[in-house]
Amino acid sequence: MSDRNDSDYQKEIESLRERYLQFNLGNEVYAIPLLNVKEVIPVPNTTPVPNIPAYYKGIMNLRGQIISILDLRKKLNIKPNEDLEEAVVIVELQGLNIGVIVDSINRVLHLQKEEVGEIPEVSSQVNTRFIEGVYKGADALTILLDLDGILNIKEIKNMQAKSA
Amino acid sequence: MDEFEIELKQDFLTESTDLLESAEMSFLNLENDRENMDILNEIFRLAHNLKGTSQAVGFMQLSALTHTAENLILKLKEGELKVTDEIVTTLLEFKDKVYEIIEGLKEDFNASFDFSALEDKLVRICEHGSLSGEDSAENEMVVEPSIGEMQEQVEVHSEHLEQFETPSFEPAPVGEEEVEPGNTLEDDLARLEVELKQIAAEPPKENQYSDAALESLRELGMDIPSDMLQAEVPAAEVAVDPVEVAPTINPTPISQNTTAPKASSGNGGDSGDSGNKPSDSGAPKKANGPEESIRVKLSRIDQINNVIGELVILQTVVSQRRFEFVQDELMNKSITMMSKLFKEVQELAMSLRMLPIKSVFQKMNRIVRDTSLKLEKDVNLNLVGEDTEVDKTVIEKISDPLVHIVRNAVDHGLESPEARIASGKDKKGQIELMAFHEGNNLVIQITDDGKGINPDVIRKKAIEKRIISENSNLTDQQIIDMIFHPGFSTAEKVTDVSGRGVGMDVVKTNIEALGGQVKLRSKVGVGSSFKIILPLTLAIIEGVVVSADSEKFVIPLSQISEVAQVLPEDIESFSGGTKLFKLRGEVLPLFFVNQKIGKPIAEQKRYTTIIVRGLDYPFGVVVDDILNQQQVVIKKLGEDILNKKGMMGSAIMADGLPALILDVLELYRDDLKRNKSFEKHKTRNMAKAA
């Protein structure tokens, strides 16, 4: 166990929570909490899986672990920028490791709570259900995505509980 | 509850499962070797360890129950009681109960259990050496001397008592207090403890439990002897807390075993917490140079296997390219050496999942004991090859089928002692349980020297049950195999041990689900022998790598009956996409893997077709090509697609890419159903046309 005291630890967690990984999908800028991100890798060779939705790109071998790769652009109905696949973000959502394909990775954002606004009326290509908030940066708006909701992790978990 | 405490409790629960296994083993040993001090000491140490640790982590109920048993064991150890069948049975019951409690606690740390009946039994045996003689009138008599006896002990060890003494000694109206219902066990114990200390300090009065009090107890419908006797539990706690007292009262047995170094009890990780009890005697395990071991999470071992698997793949790439790109001789040599080491490491890592089959075999000891007692048969179980290693997952799953077979062997296989003597056999029936490796398989053989299976009886029964027809022409072996048929039970009368009609077919299904087989040989009058053949691990399967539209798939070899080349002219297409083909005169439905993965079907001169016969309806699956046959390590798919039908998992191919393992039976189950109805429809139409 660490000799750091609890409040320090809490602070670090908090600061991690406020950090987001910003990336591009089509012409829009999105971000997900850094705490969910395990790593970013180049787009790997994948093996297609029959009988699954189109946004499932396939499965990959990540150092011995089999991980599903999904195309976030197809899932969100965003027209990709040409067919440029730049990176796969490996995220951990409720214990599930999933890779999502994004156009490009920008940077890590440090957000203050007050900088995150309500969902604006502007039309985004993404259903507002899956938007946690909007960060008004200097240049553009960044949409904070609720990956849990988009990928319907809860339902997957439920399905498992039932089938188990 | 803080995390540390939770961790402590969880550790305790896992460890105590081990403790219980050793305890059961010792109980059974004790039954065969009743005078053996070593066994008694070992049992005492186990019980004491369990009591101390459960108390330390706060499972008070468990500690209380164990304490009761400990008292009994102490009496056995000190020779006050002789080991009887009854005692062993009760001790085994005690073990079962503790197991139940531990399992319950694993679910919920605050779970509460009812074990009063067992506790009562333990106490009664502790007092009388047997369960008999519990008439309430008699009981009144027995309670008295026992208090007196306790009194005696208290006097002897009064120095130990001092710490327990309470300042006031007003004798509580015992009878009245006893009647109070609805107290929790802890309350009862605590209160009784105080009372007994008082009683201990005062000479016992005659007839302290008045007839009137007993009468009122009876009216309340309470189990009088048990309540009276329950008082003995705390009594013993006051008088002979064995931890402190045992060395002083009876130094002889202890001194025998203190020679074993204390460190040895750390072996198996089962006594790490016992250190806080100074007199923990550290009884000798039957030690032949105890090897130290640690407890590791299975998931960690799997991780190691994953990483090493990857290393090996990378290593292969390096090895293959070294002649092309590496000129340096030393480097080439090193790469060769590394390849060898990697192989070795991989084998080691795989072997980490392997455990000796001992734990399952030892369970059978108990099964045989209980079953033979119930059936009043005399049985000797012989275990061979206990140290044969097999994958942990196999061990977990083989236990139930094995229990069933062993139980059957005792019940149906072996004759009654009279019948055995009549047929010139030894009165004691023999059952042998043997495990060994055969190629890449584990073989478990269960042999009995009983009456064997009479094919004529089976035949009669099968005809009676309309499983076969009267004029069917089956060999004796085929007839014997009928006992694996669902709904077949040959027991002439249904006993509560076996013979409920479900049984051998379930055994067979379970073993086949593990990718194994079960065979039965039997000779009338000589005995029967079951042979279970299992894969050594469930993590690796023999698979056939096929390609379909440039993708690789693995099909388990066990599902493939044969591979055929089907000519286009042998294929007939029907509306709705159904295709049938002819194979040596048999008409089978035909499917294309490409269709399942949404790829076009390429026209070919001949179609490579895999014939699958697992379901009651055989069918063919067309693949583009068959690449090779190899062993593959099954990897779980991501949980998000785990439930997709027809996919068993995935395997990492030599190129590092994953390939899906197709469960073709599942994959085409629905299509087959549709096909079947189509088939019926078609034959009906054809019949009409004719």
SSE diagram, text form:
The complex is a heterodimer of chains A (164) and B (690).
Chain A lengths: L5 H12 L1 E7 L2 E6 L3 E6 L13 E7 L2 E7 H4 L11 E7 L2 E7 L1 E7 L5 E2 L13 E6 L4 E5 L1 H4 L2 H11 L1
Parallel strand pairs in A: 2-11, 5-7
Antiparallel strand pairs in A: 1-2, 1-8, 3-6, 4-5, 6-7, 9-10, 10-11
Chain B lengths: L2 H30 L4 H21 L2 H18 L7 H23 L8 H13 L7 H21 L1 H4 L12 H6 L5 H17 L9 H9 L4 H7 L1 H8 L2 H8 L1 H7 L40 H28 L3 H23 L2 E3 L1 H18 L3 E6 L4 E3 H22 L3 H6 L6 E10 L2 E8 L6 H10 L11 H5 L23 H10 L3 E7 L3 E9 L4 E9 L2 E6 L3 E7 L4 E3 L5 E5 L2 E7 H4 L10 E6 L6 E5 L1 E9 L13 E6 L5 E5 L1 H4 L1 H21 L1
Parallel strand pairs in B: 2-4, 9-18, 13-15
Antiparallel strand pairs in B: 1-3, 4-5, 5-7, 6-7, 8-9, 8-16, 10-14, 11-12, 12-13, 14-15, 17-18
Helix pairs in contact in B: 1-2, 1-4, 1-17, 2-3, 3-4, 3-5, 4-5, 5-11, 6-11, 6-12, 9-12, 15-16, 17-18, 18-22
Helix share bin of chain B = 40-55%
SS content category of chain A? alpha+beta
Using DSSP, what is the number of strands of chain B? 18
Average pLDDT, all residues of chain A = 78
CA distance, first residue to last residue of chain B: 80 Å
Biggest pleated-sheet summary of chain B: 6 strands, mixed
Anisotropy-based shape of chain A: globular
Number of extended strands of chain A: 11
What is the overall shape of chain B? globular
Low-confidence runs of at least 5 consecutive residues of chain B: 133-183, 203-210, 219-287, 491-501
Spatial strand order of the main sheet of chain B: 10-14-15-13-12-11
User: Residue ranges of chain A: pLDDT <50 for 5 or more in a row?
Assistant: none
DSSP helix fraction of chain A: 10-25%
Count of helices of chain B?
25
Strand order of the largest sheet of chain A: 8-1-2-11-10-9
User: Structural class of the helices, strands and pairings of chain B?
Assistant: alpha+beta
